């Protein structure tokens, strides 16, 4: 019997609807919409509104700082095209910023030491015309913390990155966004200015069930930090891209780099960190990646689980109310727990390199026991047989070596060391020697092996 691996079960859909209905009611927001994508497809949408309507999958909401992730993608594209390096100082491209040796990577990871907000009036409620120059955004006291020493979230930093994209491309940030991300991904309902149908932003009185309309300003230079409007459908499409990559926009290795922690954890936030334009939260079972956003009148959350291939987006039109990022995370986990991912079928390799096959099986680093497995595309997996250990997958290179992809061995080289007769002497993994037997004599163990070999405890009765 064949069943769909993407469509959700009715009980799961009911659980998702119940969660967003609770969030809209308890959070007291005029409307709340959500969507879930699984295995690369939008599989569920839902909404709740004070007026009773719930069909808002194509209604635009302001997404606030989720915009930063779009800006980060544009910067990574410039890097991948060889137009800049993430370790370059920003002033190489924007000397008017006056940021000294602050690097592009530090801006992406919020470790540049810049202040969180620009000087002057509350920028989210002030027309962009009041910030015509980059100097007006940075001000005189932009440096708040030592450069590179700690994570300090900075809207001004992403404004600088937006200006960087414009300077290197020779156009505007908005033009680059539309041409390089929105059009290739088919995100036709994402824009800098609202396009009908679009939700109106509201403030809800904290102690009475009454509303106050919020202004919707053109944020000018601050737009790359938080100015976009989008929909549940478009953002679910964007989340799938961030999980899998798309060569038309950014390859899988570069989006994986965005999802990799780039800054130290903050005290008290040991389960959360920041990559390059993406927030990262996790526990022992799951790691979720995404971003939250807010502007007066709106809150937004986009989160995805790469391993389970589930993404969720939640949007609401209230200045404060439900924690929509937390709701989005709960939607992801609801689907993952109610409908665990069905593993892909095991298939044997097509074609086998006999020399690589001969490398498989047990290996020993000192007395630690490991097993080496052969994967597809000549990749190798080294894992501890028992207890804790430094396991990793190593991808094959063009020079007869392999490169580690995670954990302690990420970026480290695995090579096969052979004797003069061509037989394998040992494996070298970042200078660690792995032998076929624990401390095998003649296998190149640093410091040598005691010629007397292994021994037991002397028998006192024969002493």
UniProtKB/TrEMBL annotation:
Keywords: Hydrolase. InterPro entries: AmpC-like, Beta-lactam-related, Beta-lactam/transpept-like, DUF7586. Residues 21-325 form the Beta-lactamase-related domain. Transmembrane segments: none annotated. The keyword Hydrolase applies. Residues 443-463 are annotated as: Disordered. It comes from the Bacteria. The keyword Nuclease does not apply. One of its GO terms (molecular function) is hydrolase activity. Residues 352-436 form the DUF7586 domain. This is Serine hydrolase.
